[in-house]
Amino acid sequence: MSVDTTTATELTYEQIQKILIAPLQEQSVFLAAGPRIFDTAGPIRIPKNQPATAEGLGFTGENEQIGERDIEFDEVTLMPSTMKSVKTLTRYSNELARQSAIGLDAAIKDRLVNDVAAKLDAQFLSAAGDGVTTPKGLFAYTGTQTLAVGGALSLDALLTAWGLALAANVNMAGLKWLLTPGDFVALRKVKDKNDQYLLQADPTADGVFRLWGCPVIVSSRIPDDAETGRAALVDFSQIAVARDMAPSVKILTERFADYDQQAIRVVARYDAAPLNPEAIVTLTGITR
Asked: Which residues are bridge partners to 21 per DSSP?
């Protein structure tokens, strides 16, 4: 009897598929939602008009002097020199690079870029940040409209938030909901007295979820726990993003040469602020 691959599998070369299975990852939400992006390496000022008012205006008759009035302006400032960047670096040996069954540098680069993008997205959707060293999160903006839910998120609460935006003369066609997966699923479970779901799937729709006519963005990166559950109704075109560097990759071949190593560095620097805070309605105090 001869020795073959079935009786001596320990001595054979095991085939390795040259692919890398990545876990399911949430796509970037904030930047994809449509804020206005301004590329700048330093501080940037965006002028804006004050809210419209009829104060000082009157009806003028024939041959009467037209009254004068002053117009006030304001501005939004972004990207102060103190704003920090998101930076990360990973070293790997040249032996590992040569012996890897997949393109090691490409695999590490993709992982680091995704991690940096996730960090930025989580910051933009958070209730943290000071606008000086770290960007303010959407739920930390000042001057926005706020609705304290004080209970489970309901369709009535969403309609009240929609009404706040309507009363503030917000462009209703540009609004989008920001909901956590748990809150969105809870709303989809709401039934009428006939045990029929109130939110019925439309077989002619394009796969975009809508509530009260506004598209829904579902994200697990919205800060959420039993006491501080949040949601928002946002016109993202009224949010400005200053971008110094999108996630940028640098391959370092000489820095760690004495260790016979290479490194991959990823750097990104952003800031964000609302142009018109009234176009953002935040819902707080959501419980389950």
From this structure: none
Mean pLDDT to the nearest integer, 66-76:
85
The three-class DSSP label of residue 248 is strand
Rounded to the nearest 5°, which phi and psi values hold at 75? -150, 155
pLDDT average, residue stretch 47-53: 78
What does the pLDDT read at residue 13?
Answer: 60
Q: Determine the pLDDT at residue 16.
A: 64
CA distance 36 to 288: 34
3-state SS record for 56-84: CCCCCCCCCCCCCCCCCEEEEEECCCCCC
Query: Is 164 part of a structural domain of the chain?
Result: yes
Number of domains in the chain: 1
- Of 65, 85, 37, 80, the closest CA to residue 250 belongs to 85
What's the CA gap between 175 and 103, in Å, rounded?
42
Report the phi/psi class of residue 70: left, alpha or beta, with left for phi > 0 and alpha for psi in -120 to 50: beta
CATH of residue 275's domain is: 3.30.2320.10
Q: 116 φ, ψ to 5°?
A: -65, -45
The Cα 182–Cα 58 span in angstroms is 52
Asked whether the predicted pLDDT for residue 17 surpasses 80, the reply is no
State the average pLDDT over residues 32-37.
Answer: 94
**Residue pLDDT, tens place only, 102-125:** 888 889 999 999 999 999 999 999
Kindly state whether residue 40 falls inside one of the protein's structural domains: yes
d(CA 281, CA 16): 52
The predicted-structure confidence for 179-220, as pLDDT tens digits, reads as follows 999 999 999 999 888 888 888 766 666 667 889 989 999 999
Residue type, 44: I
